Amino acid sequence: TSARKISTFFKKEAGYDIDGVITFSPQIVARILDIVGPIEMPEYSLILDSNNLLPTLQEEVEYNGDRKQPKQIIMDLAPRMLEKLYSAESGKWLEVFNLLVASMEQKDILMYFRDLNLQSFSVDKGFSGQVANTDSDYLMVTFTNVKGSKTDLVIDSSLKLWTESENGKHKVSITRTHNGGNSEYGFYNKQSPTYVRVLVPDNAEFTGLTGNSRPNFKPLIDYTNSEFKKDDDLAKFEEESYTDQETGVTIYKEAGKTEFGFWMIINPGETKTVDLEYAVPSSGDDYQ
């Protein structure tokens, strides 16, 4: 769904369609540099390797780059990265190939294609990021960094799940620790506002939420009385949701699932836990 939306925006900007979208974790680039060696970028007075790649790029984007094109360094890096790969020895190509296959299996690479045959292959192999359609129990927890700078890289997350098969009661305990605060890079020392979404079976019933943040965020613009166009998909998604004022949870319907959304705002050095409780009628013993 996100890839299709990205494709639509790209066409509006560029004027032509694309064949697909491939997303990957930036850590993959660092691991490739571990194999093929560092990349020199003399116009930035930089030599990028697996150890300094992420913080160096983030520092350039956040502080040093042209504000009109803050990510220019990434555009300059891409062709040199490809050139480094093309000129690598055949043995290193095999290492890179094995790294990419392992990354796809670990969901560090996700793919979407307009070609139905390619997309079917991606879905069948589990490379598409598609929410599983299953009759069994289901749980997916996603974190969205909203104005939290680069803090995701210094946050540890853990998850515990308790279930009672007789009555279908579930309790999900989410704990996050912010390890920033003393880093030499300022973007790791900022507050981390995160919107958490928990996808569960469609017939799940919300029963309780504790420990979540209750910020008073408001739009900077009065969109209701503006001339902005509504995105049809987003409008439908929001129209079918409602917020429980007592707990602050927003309940959505998405991808054939019920979804519980709430905020976790964590300051550097803090650890917070949120407990979510819900019931799944006639819950089975199988989980996805």
Structure description:
There is one protein chain. With 288 residues, the protein is α+β, with helices and mostly antiparallel strands. 29% of the residues lie in helices and 29% in strands. The protein has 7 helices and 13 strands. Helix 2 packs antiparallel against helix 5 (90-105). The longest helix has 16 residues, at 90-105. The model has no long low-confidence stretch (mean pLDDT 91).
Topology of helices and strands:
Blueprint: H1 2-14, E1 20-24, H2 26-36, E2 39-41, E3 46-48, H3 53-64, H4 72-86, H5 90-105, E4 109-113, H6 116-124, E5 140-145, E6 155-164, E7 169-178, E8 192-200, E9 205-210, H7 232-239, E10 242-243, E11 250-254, E12 257-266, E13 271-279
Antiparallel strand pairs: 1-4, 2-3, 5-8, 6-7, 7-13, 8-12, 9-13, 10-11, 11-12
Major beta sheet, strand line-up: 5-8-12-11-10
Strand content: 25-35%
**Count the strands?**
13
Question: How would a textbook summarize the main sheet?
Answer: 5 strands, antiparallel
The helix count comes to 7
Radius of gyration: 22 Å
Outline, from the CA principal axes? globular
How confident is the prediction overall: mean pLDDT?
91
Helix content: 25-40%
**Helix/strand/pairing class, anyone?**
alpha+beta
Q: Give the SSE string.
A: HEHEEHHHEHEEEEEHEEEE
The N- to C-terminal Cα distance equals: 20 Å
Contiguous uncertain segments of 5+ residues: none
